[in-house]
UniProtKB/TrEMBL annotation:
Transmembrane parts of this sequence: 27-46, 66-87, 94-117, 123-144
Signal peptide: none
Top-level taxon: Bacteria
Protein name: MFS transporter
Lineage per the UniProt record: Bacteria, Pseudomonadati, Pseudomonadota, Gammaproteobacteria, Pseudomonadales
Annotated organism of origin: Pseudomonas palleroniana
SUPFAM superfamilies referenced in this protein's UniProt entry, alphabetically: MFS general substrate transporter
One Pfam family cited in the UniProt record for this chain: MFS_1
GO molecular function, one term: transmembrane transporter activity
A GO cellular component entry from the record: plasma membrane
Length: 152
């Protein structure tokens, strides 16, 4: 058998896209950008709030590392499966479900009265966050032709 040079192979043409209505074309990039911002902010802002949160929960600040680890580990474990999940159930459903899950997790974090409850809420938040980034990006890539992606 003759070896195949995969560097010169290209994927077939992108599937035909249904034209976007004006409202979707205008707001989709903004919705995805806001979701990206929420996820990025959530991944970093907690570090500055940990001492105050530890005081509110009557915990040792050194024990609060589980709050950060729970979120990051959940995100890291689920991101590889996010493409398959989006293909299986639909990008729109998964993306908006991820926003709801992330928001629900955020609400649970705000209502947490113990460290273990906060860690559980961060896992729920991480489930939503892990799906928001890659699936949001996938939605934009599938919604616009390649020539328009630079303008977005």
């Amino acid at each position: 058998m003759k070896p195949t040079d995969t560097r010169t192979q290209t994927r077939g043409p992108m599937p035909n896209r249904a034209p976007l209505d004006a409202v979707t074309a205008r707001w989709l990039p903004w919705v995805v950008a806001i979701a990206f911002f929420m996820q990025s902010l959530d991944g970093t802002i907690l570090n500055t709030a940990l001492p105050a949160m530890a005081g509110d929960l009557a915990e040792n600040p050194l024990r609060m590392q589980g709050v950060i680890i729970a979120y990051m580990l959940t995100v890291a474990l689920l991101i590889p499966a996010s493409g398959w999940i989006a293909d299986r159930f639909g990008t729109k459903k998964i993306f908006f479900g991820a926003i709801l899950l992330f928001s629900f997790g955020s609400l649970l974090c705000a209502l947490s009265s113990s460290l273990s409850m906060l860690i559980g809420a961060r896992v729920i938040q991480g489930l939503g966050g892990a799906l928001m980034l890659p699936v949001g990006r996938l939605m934009v890539l599938r919604a616009y032709p390649r020539s328009e992606l630079v303008r977005i």
